[in-house]
Every structure is written in C-alpha cells, then in structure tokens.
Amino acid sequence: MSDWGMQKAALGERLAAGRRHAKGKTVPLPNLPAFLKAVIRSGDRVCLEGDNQKQADILASALANLDPAEVHDLHMVQSGVVLPAHLDIFEKGIARRLDFSYSGPQAARIAKMLFGRKIELGAVHTYLELFARYFIDLTPNVALIAAVSADKDGNLYTGPNTEDTPTVVEATSYKNGLVVAQVTEIVDKVPRVDIPGDLVHFVVEAGRPFYVEPLFTRDPAAITETQILTAMLAIKGIYAPYGVRRLNHGIGFNTAAIELLLPTYGEKLGLKGNICTHFALNPHPTLIPAIENGWVDQIHCFGSEVGMEDYVAARSDIFFTGPDGSLRSNRAFCQTAGLYACDMFIGSTLQIDLEGHSSTVTTSRIAGFGGAPNMGSDPRGRRHPSEPWLKAGAEAAPDAPAALRRGRKLVVQIGETFGDRNAPLFVERLDALELARALNLDLAPVMVYSDDVTHIVTEEGIANLLMCRTKDEREQAIRGVAGYTDIGRARDPKLVEQLRQRGVIRRPEDLGIDPLDADRRLLAARSIKDLMLASGGLYRPPSRFRNW
Amino acid sequence: MTTVTADTGSLSWYEASARQRIDALVDAGSFQEFIGPELRETSPHLSIFDLPEQFDDGIVVGRSRLQGSPVLVAAQEGRFMGGAFGEVHGAKLTGLLRAACALHQDVLILFDTGGVRLQEANAGELAIAEIMRAVVEARRAGINVIGLIGGRAGCYGGGSLIAGTCSRLIVSEQGRISVSGPEVIETNRGIEEFDSRDRALVWRTMGGKHRYLIGGADLFVDDEALAFRQAAIDALRGKRGYDKAVLEAEQKRLERRLQRFGEAKDAVEIWQALGLDAPTEIPALPTDAFLRAAGKRENADDAR
Hints:
By secondary structure, chain A is of the alpha/beta class. Chain A has 19 helices and 21 strands.
C-alpha cells in the first residue's frame, strides 16, 4: 500500500520544527539561525531568492552562517548568484550543487570556484528555462524569498520589484515545499497582496529593505559619439524600414543612445508612433525623454529600477501598476512577453565570431545568461503575424510560399568594432569555447546563436544576415562591418562590395547618414540630471549616479 | 513638448572640447593660436611609454578679443590624458603668461585637468611651479588672470594650485576644484574617509556649488558657453592689486574659514553653519534659486 502523502507529512514536520522558533508565522530576527537549522535538511533543494535585482540578503547571510556539520549538500536553484554570501554557502560546504541563470557581480569568483571544484555545476540557464525547470525537475523543497512587507497572516507586498517571487512561490508552495519570506516590516494591512498568505509559511522582519542593485541606469554622460552613430544607423536602417513597434532593448550604452535619440533624431525622421511604441523592458531612466514626448504607449517590466519608483507610479498609463499605485513587475511573464510578443531584440555583446555566434563570456568570468538568450532568439512556436516579423521572414526565404513561410524575429547585435579597452568585437574564436573546454562543459556559453541573429550594427554599417545565402556570404557580411579589427582587415573587398550593392551591407552613406552628425548634442538628455529634470523631478537617481 | 529634452542648440561647457570652448567664449573669428598643432610640438616623454601623443599636447593657447578687448587665452583639453600637465603643455601656459606681462594683456585660463602627468612628473611639477610664479608676476604687473572651471576632468592637483593663484575663478556646478581627487583620497585614507564612487558626495565636497559657497570661487554660472563668456566679461572689469596687504587678508580669511568649518564632517554641515535655508536641498537647486540661497556664502573677495 503506497503512502501518497509523504511530502505533505514532511512539510508538516518542517512546519512543526519551525513553529518552535516562531510566534505564529513570524520568526523573530534573533531566532533566525536556529529556525533555519530546524527547517532545512541536508540534501534539500533550496531556492534562495537572488533575482536579477532584488536579493533576500538577510536570509542569504543566515544560510551562509549555518554549521556545515549540521546542514550540508544543499542543491541551490536560484536565478541570480549576486551576493558574496551566495558563494560563501559553497565555500563553507553547506551547499554543493548549483543551477542558476545570472551571476554578474560574482562572475569572476564563480569561475574560480568552478575551476576549484568548490561548486558542482548543474547548468547555466536562461531565466525562463530555470523557471520552467522549477515546475518539472528542479522544484525547491525550501524557498527563501524577499518582499517589502507582510501582514500577520503572511500576505506579502513585494513592491515594484516583484520580479521572480510569484514563480518561486508557485513552484515551491503548491508542491509541498516550505516558503520563508524576509520583509522590511510587518504591517497591519499590506498595500496590495502580491503573494497570498496561505502560500507563505514563515515571515522574518528584517527591519531594513532588501538589497537591490541599480542595473539598468546608464549615465548619458558616458555615451560616446561612436555609440550615437551606431544608434542612428539602427534607427534609420532597421527600426524605420521594418516598422518595429514591439521590442526589447539590452542594457548597453548603444541602446541607451537609441532611447535618447528617439525624441530628437527619431522625431526628425518622422518616426513617432511608427516605432518603439510597446516595450518589454525594465524602467530604463534613459527612456524618460521618449516617454515624456509621447513616443511610448506601453511597457511591461521584468523588475523595477532604483530611483524610478515615483516616476513609474505617476505614469500608470504606460506602466503596469497595482491599485496601490506602484509598479507590478513579473520576470516570468515579461520574459514570455519578450519572447513571443516582441518583434525585435537589440543588444550589445562582447564577442562575435565569423558565423555570428555571440557571447559575453571571457575566460575568467562566468556572468551567466539572464534573459538575453530568450529575448535574442527566434521563437519557433510563434504563430501571430506582424509587419516586421513577416518582412524579416520574407527576406530570409524570398522563394517560399508566403502562407507557409515562418516570420523571423529581428535579433540585432550592436556595438563598436573596438569595445571597452580596445578589445575587438569580432574574433576568430569565442573565449566561451576555451571556457567550455577548461570546465569540461557540454555546451559553450553562447548568448545568441548564429542562426538567431539577423543583423549586426557597428559604426561601419549594418550587416543584414537574413539576406545572406551562403556561409561565405555570411562571413564576408560580418567581416564587412568589422572595420579595422583583424577580422575586418581580412575581408574580401570584392565580395564585400557586391554585398553592399545588394543591400546586405549598408554603410552610413548608403543610409544618408553623415558620421559627423553623430554629436552628443543629439541626445535628448546628456546627463543623469537632464533625466531627472525631464521626469519633472519624479526620477530620483541613487547617490552614486548624481553629479550634483 | 521640447522642454523635456536637453537644449540641443546650446553648447554645454562640460561637454565641449577645448577648441569648442574657445570658439564660443571669445569674439567670433578673433582667436589666433600660438604654437598650433601644425607645428607638432609634442611631448618628449610619452613615446617612451608607448603612449599616444597629441599635436597640441592637450592645451590650446593664443590671442583673441573679448567684447573687442584683447585677451590671451589658454584652454586645456580634458579628453587628452585628462588634461594633465606635462613639459610642453606646461611650457605653453608659462609662455602665454610671460607674454601677458610683455603685452600687458589679461589672461583667461580654461582649466580642465586632473593635475600632473605621472609619465612626466618631474617636468610637470616644475611646470606647475613656473606657471604659479608667472601668474603671480602677471598679477603684480596689474594683469587679471581669470580661471574658468567646468570641464569633465575638473581642476585637480597642480591645476587647483594654479587656480588658487588666479585673480578670479568662474565655476559651474559641474566644475570640481580640489588638490586630491576622489580616488586618491579613497586609496590613501580608505573608503570610510571618502567613497569615490558616491558621486553625490564627490560633488558636494568638490563641486562648483560648494566651492562657491565657501569662497573657493568668485562667480557661479550655468553649464553654458555663453554664461561663461558673460562671466569672463564681468570678471575682467576693474583691476585688483596683489600686494602684502591682500595676501595677509587672504591668510586671515582662510584661518577664519578653518575655524568656522574645520570640525564639519560633511559639506551639508558647512552649509548649515553658513545659515543657508534648507541646506540639504542645495545640490538640487537650479542656478537662479541657488544664487538666491547663496546670499550668506563666505566671501571670496579679499585676495582676488
């Protein structure tokens, strides 16, 4: 006779053990170490909420302070490995196995620990992939999450940075897992219920806000004129002809430049209303001038951005907000929106090879993927038509019958031929391959695969890879916009000229763009202060971005 | 709705190059360069370190007219080696100041510098000393030497020492004046003493508003080339002496300042001690409101 209630019984034991350190659902902060020891078992699969932006930092430190003699062999499943404590857990031998998505700030240390065999790596995922696995084969036994406030019943208010929380709680709580939340404060009534209390088992009052990283603030003062030129090329050479209205932007300076050129250069080209009306995007401060000038209809957000809270609340016509007025973000939904409902992804990268594979990996750093591979990939399950999607599909397969032809998502890589510290953007061989060899990985960490990328934009021009018919044409199209890098100098000038005649490569002059017009005076805001002023004082940049 | 975008017609002093600043500052078409880039008078040191050179060595010097009156001008290019002083760079400014004595013409120095180039430190430090001496000699001869500060590199190190000898300083909010830069302080004294990444802290400690409030600068202007031009015209009005009495008065002023504010831990405490209304709001104020609020500032007039 099988017992079909073993998981419920195990949860019951954890709840009983936890209650000995709690008052109702509330765990007093001083009891946290004893509480965690009581509810976490060696070998548990634990989701320690480390999102792209917000971090359950109090719970992370408490977990890292457990005694590895008592709790060990944890399997951590979390989208962001961001805080030092996230890796201390492995250093101390409390956890052994890791499945994650993004590790920006810890990229160097995580690489070192992987080389040193301190971490047994499951896989590096995209956000959607990891979320999907939460529901199939990586369901957490325990979730340690972060919210702004809770009431005594455990109803949670996550504030603008909801991010991954609903997904994590859904997967854990409905599959007999234990959910523990750290909150800034416990209140009588939460401003809105983001997570219903019956899914939340315990709450810890941290007494201070969770840590959150301003990841999406790009200072307009740091945008170069070369980046402005690439932005002009993208707007005139891609956004305008395809009529791209629904899109996602990366977080680099090139796309920040595009955002800041919309109300100036875009206006001059008469593109308002025809491009950039709907975004899957975090609330980028550099989008403020375009929003204020009436360019944007709607934005759905993965997370929030530090300092943008009041601005977003005051622009509920544009953003998704709750009845309390503040932003409601949701990474899983927004990633899905970016994958299926956007016609374009455009972002910067560190390395592009001759086939068009691109990667942000360097040999000593593993930053993970985050959401870019989902944004920057062609969703094969898409079925609804749109003008840019159909046009791109037609360019890729002009002879196929229209009614049976897939459209194509525009996946654009944008950058300068020489990037940070004069590192060439174009390489023979991605560093990601070296890393995969050294770590014995089955897959090289490629951000955007060559069969997904449709355009490459540099200050030398635009390469339209949709229109390349052979491997050789593709290689020469890439070399053709690679400028003075070794890759660019090894081009076949005759073939490149032919590609240019066919419009596969388009130089600035082919698009009627004079590189000398790429002037910082074209930017709708040239400083963080300009952004603050454009927002009518609603945007409150963090201290480290203020030059006043 | 164009008000929500930056004014693309005006020239931001902070953003402009040295040559753009000169063009916008002086009477149109009046500038004649001395030792221009065509002479390729480059640094003799940088090639040893395999570093790129610039044909004007990062400073533009020459003669021009401001509202019709002759004036000598030097402008540092903050985008070349952070506007830092090297041997040739310094010699061009020293020469200009000596020419000022010979021609008896006023001088405008458009600072944009991180200090002395590490690669030619000895020559650079000597240049700083020579320039300060030349400024003092020019001022003794009754010549005005005006410093304009609002560039990306600020006015640091030896540049700030030279600024301290000028007859008048014009500064914008973006301008920073300090001997040691934020990173240098943090490196030497620790992040607890000064967090160089806290830009709001950097600006309220070294920025134009604070310098103006404690008497470290004489005129405060918007980040606009035309505002700098008008301030330069104003600053050149009238001649000021430079004798023992002036220097003694300056010494007294600095002693009094130290006495009043020496214990303050943060610029906001100084603004509070000055009796400004709402001192924490100072960084956010636009220029007009700031100048109204700054009525109780420390004066800067005794020595300049």
